[in-house]
Amino acid sequence: MAEGTVGQTGTDRPAAAGRHIERLMADLASKDGLKRVRARKTLVFIGEPAVSHLVKALKDKQEWVRWEAAKTLSQIGSPAATLALIAALEDKMFDVRWLSAEGLIAIGRDALVPLLHALVDRAESSWLREGVHHVLHGIEDREFEAIIAPVISSLEGTTPIEVPLAAEKALDKLGHGGAHQ
Hints:
By secondary structure, the chain is an all-alpha fold.
């Protein structure tokens, strides 16, 4: 029922919305591609209330469910999905990693500090480095360009050992050095 429809009280709305999102999430896992596309478009329209459900779906055993979740989150662009999208940069499926990077680009500057912390912690992951490189090139924010340029250079270098050091320096310049935020 739409908001304000007769027969639905204010206390019924959150529960009804939750059931609607759950049905859409089930459709997102369907083997029927058209059903998945319709569910994805509706979840994007719903936006923020669907994010926690989509974050869970990023860990699904089915590749197409993770792909759909990453695609939907990339279109929503919610900062609430930042950590899950960073984790998905290490998914075994390339397309999920790429879509997760696109989602982080959509989030923009809010993804920057958690991305740098991930580089400090897990710089040995080639998939993470590759994804962060894509994201840093995609975030168009002149304010941070000089700060992230050395990180990008380290990611393009031949020795990944430089990456965490460059990320730590960038975090210090951003005022987020030391303990994780």
